[in-house]
Amino acid sequence: MNNCYINQLPDDALRMIFESVCEEDQATFHDYSMQNELQKDRYWDSWHQEYYHDWDYEQESNGPPPSTLITAMCVCERWHCLISQTPTLWTVLQVSFGDGAASLEQVRIFLHLSGTHPLKVTLLWNDPHNPFHGATRRASPLYDHNLSLPAPVDESVAGAYLVLIILELYAHVHRWREFTLRTTSKTHIRQALTLMSCPSVHPAHMLQKLHLQLVHTQLNVDPNHHEPIIFPGSASPINDLILFGTSWSWLSPSMFSSHLVNLRIHYCTDDDNGNAATTTKVLLQLLGALVNLQTLALELDTDRLLPDVMPHIALPNLHYLVIKSGKMDYWVADFFHYVHMPKLRILTLDGVSCDFALVEIEFEGILQELIRLTKENSSSSLLELDELHLVNFAHRADPQLLHCLYKQMTSVKVLTLGPGAFDANDAFAIGLLPTPHGPADFPLPGLQTLIVFDIPRDVMRRIVLERLSLADPLEELYYQESDYRTELEEPEDYDMIVPDDWQHQVKKYHGIEFGSLKSDRYCDVVGRQWSYLA
Fold first, then answer.
1. What does the alpha-carbon distance between residue 413 and residue 411 come to, in Å, rounded to a whole number?
2. Distance (Å, whole) CA 263 – CA 290
3. Please, are residues 378 and 372 in contact by the beta-carbon 8 Å criterion?
4. Cβ(119)–Cβ(91) under 8 Å?
């Protein structure tokens, strides 16, 4: 290294380079955490997908990215000294089960060299090759020749590594700023949470972000769990909380406090779980304390969400609400009726149901509640949405109720009729057409951005042209014609039937390419994660 130009750099410059390398490492690990799945269109937060490996959709897997810091320390004595004496380089700890036995040593190194600085910890224990929860794993015909795939590991061995790591980390719980645990094993997450329920000399007084994720499993863990609770004696100022497949009964009520700003809960139970009503009643009580909550995602599939006597709940600062459920007709109308959300501006409804089969529900009650909330002389605060997003929404809407709602939603600027609804989007799109009664009866008069999937081209043309008679042109239109409709028609005949004279009547038109949608998850649809044609 003595003859290397980089060795001539001062310590401050080298330290800046290592800081940049750390940021790249963190970004690479994040990408790995989002993409280390083997099945096509399968994500860590996908619903109701029992694990079954399909080698036809196999993606290359090279394991988790190595720690560049640990490698760089071995280059020369100067680098070793500089890196090991800069504790801020070691404050983001990202460990994957794919690291095997080396993961424990990596944790020890980071804990030692980070000194007393706050820690951001991520543990990925969802090995995509071996899901640990007993699902079928089919052997690859090329397994012996595919060296990139690790051999299956027994659940108890993986659990032993996790226990040792949690023990090492929990001794430093007073330094945790962020903690994320993702696993495919109910046993593993129960082991980890039980260890985190032990009394600690130092409380978790710095913890601001807590993500507990039990993924790729049908039902939540421990629906009957009541004690112990994690971080006993701590009043952690958590502002970002995800409970995915994990019961909120592991947390003390003090964690559902005014500090909480972002909350996402994924909770599924079977119909025979008699304790679900009690458990969800506790959830509703906890929501009532979240006076500063700004974003809320409720991904709930249960027949017993609301108790017979529903208390009124105030979420005075809630700005963004997501409801994802295949059983909306069981609880969503009552939720809108009893939960006061005066600052709600963005609403997303995702109608996905079990096994990704889109099933129609009784949508009338939900429509009527939304109509009540958007009526100007309503006794409750007026609901003034800026954005309304419907994804996987294969639910039929009564045309008259839908028109009444659209007419009252004068503040809506963005409307999404997302993928997965098949021809059910037709009614929601046709509702945008003006009526003979003039401006006073005009649906969504403030609409500026329209995002639509699976709408016939003739309907789309009518919407664009007929709304021009009473409103300014749309600022943006994102449009993907239904794939199955175009297959039924000869392309040249279809083009003749529907004139191509409407796209230029909007200020910015984007044709969404078929197959370009990253996924039909609401986060990707609302975030417009697709490629399109200008």
1. 6
2. 10
3. yes
4. yes
Q: Which of 144-158, 207-221, 386-400 has the highest mean pLDDT?
A: 386-400
Cβ contact 474:464 at 8 Å: yes
Count of Cβ atoms closer than 10 Å to residue 437 Cβ: 9
Which residues does 230 contact at the CB level (< 8 Å), separation at least 6?
193, 196, 197, 250, 251
Contact 425, 417 (CB under 8 A): yes
Q: How far apart are CA 524 and CA 514, in angstroms?
A: 15
**Adjacent-strand bridge partners of 477:** 450, 509
In order, the DSSP letters of 143-177 are GGG-TTSPPP--HHHHHHHHHHHHHHHHTTGGGEE
pLDDT digits (tens, 9 = 90+) for 413-470: 999 998 887 778 888 999 999 988 888 899 999 999 999 998 999 999 999 999 998 9
d(CA 254, CA 240) in angstroms, rounded, equals 14
Cα 321 from Cα 515, distance rounded (Å): 28
Residue 329 — pLDDT band, cuts 50, 70, 90? confident
The predicted model gives 126-154 an average pLDDT of: 44
Distance of alpha carbon 399 from alpha carbon 121, whole angstroms:
50
| CB-based contacts of 74, cutoff 8 Å, min separation 6 | 80
The token pair that represents 317 in the structure block = 């600062």
